[in-house]
């Protein structure tokens, strides 16, 4: 108690705050893995009689030999998995023991995402929508993480996490409305396809500029902490986006302000055409966590149960202990980056085939279900047919709907429209009237 009281005087913190910190400390030390991570520097009591370092920014000893720290001090961070590639549980104590209904729901969401991707990708190829991005190969990262969250946890995504929103119950009709930019689109047709957002599902609207969601998510987590709201934030991003300055800002603010946030990195091997071996020289993204004083783990993203377990535990501890967690989910982007990309220009068909045929999150889960007699050929055939029908019907409904009124281009930013915007609006309508043969106004909502 005397030590705590001394620390309280020295740091200027209230007695209760210091006591809380003292209680949290042992919890934070629990999960040290085999590689060495030095504890967060604590300010030491200043005693000028000792020949010890007194620098406020580090807690360490002096040395008298010149030695640079090797960049591989943290390397080979292991990849946590629960199932092998044949869907066999490796260590029974890690089996999340989900019931049949839950596992079937995982499978149906993962395959539904796949079917929706196929139909929307094709519809872009046929010129029906302007753009699309598929999620092929990354279904396990979406469903495993989404299932481990509470429905009121806030999601900040990049653009390749449609499965998270699907798991939360965003209807197929709304996915289609967004991609078709029709009157039902919550964004009123103002965003590119796949830039979903839904207040009802606590899913913040996607932005195209990479990594902008990372500091925003840190800010939201800080607000949640201040409200003592018993909620967490999850922030998804690709390993490519992790090279942005915004990633650093978000990580460091979350660590220093001790925010309940899960940083979920989908390491899918590529940032468009740039492979990971040209993106970084360290051990991936997980290795960066200790540098920020963050708990970190690397998981097999193609193992939906590994993703589920890691996210669930990170979520629990993030909220209980108010601290950020970093999950690096190793996976593979099987599709092209987007409909504007042709990945055959920078990777081999054999490479893609390996992930598609031999290490796919959907087939791994199917093996698991088949081994338990929970799913057979007939179930597969009828679900394929039924899910395709559901997607096709939603797609046909979306295509028939009107487009939003063009007025919406100018609304919802300012309460009172500024002069420059109303001038632009008038000139837009003048232009449309003058060239009306080029603008099918009957397809737009009045
Ligand atoms: C600030 C910024 N720079 C560049 C781009 C162009 N861009 C869009 S996606 C992308 C690659 C991102 O890769 P990653 O974060 O690994 O996500 P993935 O596409 O692999 O899911 C790039 C460079 C952008 N949208 N924003
Ligand atoms: Mg990537």
UniProtKB/TrEMBL annotation:
Q: Which InterPro entries match?
A: Alpha-ketoacid_DH_E1_comp, DH_E1, THDP-binding
The main location class comes to mitochondrion
- What does the record give as the function of this protein? The branched-chain alpha-keto dehydrogenase complex catalyzes the overall conversion of alpha-keto acids to acyl-CoA and CO(2). It contains multiple copies of three enzymatic components: branched-chain alpha-keto acid decarboxylase (E1), lipoamide acyltransferase (E2) and lipoamide dehydrogenase (E3). Together with BCKDHB forms the heterotetrameric E1 subunit of the mitochondrial branched-chain alpha-ketoacid dehydrogenase (BCKD) complex. The BCKD complex catalyzes the multi-step oxidative decarboxylation of alpha-ketoacids derived from the branched-chain amino-acids valine, leucine and isoleucine producing CO2 and acyl-CoA which is subsequently utilized to produce energy. The E1 subunit catalyzes the first step with the decarboxylation of the alpha-ketoacid forming an enzyme-product intermediate.
Sorted keywords for this record are: Metal-binding, Mitochondrion, Oxidoreductase, Potassium, Thiamine pyrophosphate, Transit peptide
- Protein name per Swiss-Prot or TrEMBL: 2-oxoisovalerate dehydrogenase subunit alpha
Localization:
Mitochondrion matrix
Q: Which reaction does it catalyse?
A: N(6)-[(R)-lipoyl]-L-lysyl-[protein] + 3-methyl-2-oxobutanoate + H(+) = N(6)-[(R)-S(8)-2-methylpropanoyldihydrolipoyl]-L-lysyl-[protein] + CO2
Q: What is the main EC category here?
A: oxidoreductase
| PANTHER family per the UniProt record, alphabetical | 2-OXOISOVALERATE DEHYDROGENASE SUBUNIT ALPHA, MITOCHONDRIAL (PTHR43380)
Q: Which residues form the Dehydrogenase E1 component domain?
A: 108-407
> What Pfam families does this protein's entry cite?
E1_dh
Per the UniProt entry, what is one GO biological process?
branched-chain amino acid catabolic process
- GO cellular component, as recorded: mitochondrial matrix
What gene does the UniProt entry assign to this protein? bckdha
